[in-house]
């Protein structure tokens, strides 16, 4: 049976996860692109991991909310609204802490980041271990089993991503001006501090929502592989931002046949296809520069 | 008319005061040269003037809606930023001009033409030479018709031809009433242009005669 027939046959099963993959494929690279331009890509290593620890923390505290836990046990789906608070909260708090720690130069940034990553990974495992529901969900939520996403999860993810995109589009100029030359943005009397705060909160929300619904691996990959490829091929800011979503979209689309035909987990498959596209972009960029 | 006034200001960071008791004002048409040894606090002073560093103590006053054009050291900008010359200069339009009217392509084009980069508008900023980058950054600062131009070593690492273009534009702007504040390691190049000189030395900012700053005596003092 052909791939398209497979896909058509199981459309009802795939529909939610397919749409979720398109949403994260288009939106996460925009978030990562701005972090890349702000020279904050390193945050992409640690922040999703902290969001994952936030999810684990939420599961750890779930028995303290009997109604939610009952609903979870009845339906088998994680209480996403509840977990989003923890995931996005952890992502925002970690971004805030990183910005303070790095501004005050409390240590070598690479070492601080590696330490934070290790801490977040350890916390995630410990909270999951201490949570009755955690071990089951570790295999699904944190590994990014996008196929298990329900319609409510899709709506949540779409809402969070839509909010982020609206913000990026509305504040595009200010965000780019700050990313390129923060001091000049201040001299131009642009609203730098409120914009940075809004960006941190919304990006925390988007990363938290992404980690919770499609898993940290896919979020990691989509945040920073498309910007790497796009920056090699883009000629100007507009084309960079358009290429980000094009790369993200094709990465998530290319992963579907890979995942279905070879029966591989979707999240890692999408990251592998994003890597292949990035290498292609890097090569093409180098070739174009020679020409 | 005084555009920017610092009164008994301590400048630096909450944990460390870099410059103490700084008092001076900048008036329309001033061409102020700022010099000092590496690490003396010149950049701290510039960042305080543009508002990027809050004062530790003291006062800074300026007329409401003062338009400041800022030209950073080109080396502080990211090399990988996928931005064209046109993109960089257009960033100068991302605020309203004096009369509240919106700035746009014509203002950006005029600034590009003034610095002589109109033929390079579609070129990648990263691929420009040091002098061309400084000219593009100067064009960005000129777009909103600033009342004060603050420049951090705009002629450092720049070839002589580009340096001449930059200094000519700055001299014309000062003649037209724009206050120019410029950090430089080459004060001798500004002997003909500067109207005032500030020396940043041992946590203090001191106004000295231009001839002293821009002459050989001043240069020797800077590196002492």
CATH class of chain A: Mainly Alpha
Radius of gyration of chain B: 17 Å
- Looking at CATH, which topology of the largest domain in chain B would you report? Rossmann fold
Domains of chain A, number: 1
| CATH level-four homologous superfamily name of the largest domain in chain B | P-loop containing nucleotide triphosphate hydrolases
Helix content of chain B: 25-40%
- If classified by CATH, what would the architecture of chain A be? Orthogonal Bundle
The computed structural class of chain A is: mainly alpha
Strand content of chain A: under 5%
What is the number of helices of chain B?
7
N- and C-termini, Cα separation of chain A: 44 Å
Distance linking N and C termini of chain B: 35 Å
Question: Can you describe this structure?
Answer:
The complex is a heterodimer of chains A (291) and B (224). Chain A has helices spanning 3-9, 11-37, 43-61, 66-75, 80-103, 109-129, 134-140, 151-170, 172-180, 182-187, 192-214, 216-233, 237-262, 266-290. Chain A is mainly alpha-helical. Chain A has a single domain, classed as ABC transporter involved in vitamin B12 uptake, BtuC. In chain A, helix 3 (43-61) runs parallel beside helix 6 (109-129). Chain B has two domains: 1-66 and 147-166 and 176-224, Rossmann fold (3-Layer(aba) Sandwich); 75-146, no CATH class. Chain B has helices at residues 42-50, 85-90, 105-115, 130-142, 160-175, 210-214, 216-222, and strands at residues 2-13, 16-27, 31-36, 57-61, 68-71, 148-152, 179-183, 196-201, 204-208. Chain B has a six-stranded mixed beta sheet with strand order 5-6-7-3-8-9, sandwiched between helices. Chain B has a three-stranded antiparallel beta sheet with strand order 2-1-4, covered by helices on one side. In chain B, strand 8 and strand 9 (204-208) form a beta hairpin. Chain A binds chain B through residues 37, 39, 104, 173-174, 176-177, 179-184, 186-190, 230-231, 234-237, 239-240, and chain B through 15, 47, 50-52, 68-70, 72, 76-78, 80-84, 86-88, 91-92, 94-95, 122, 124, 140-141, 144, 150.
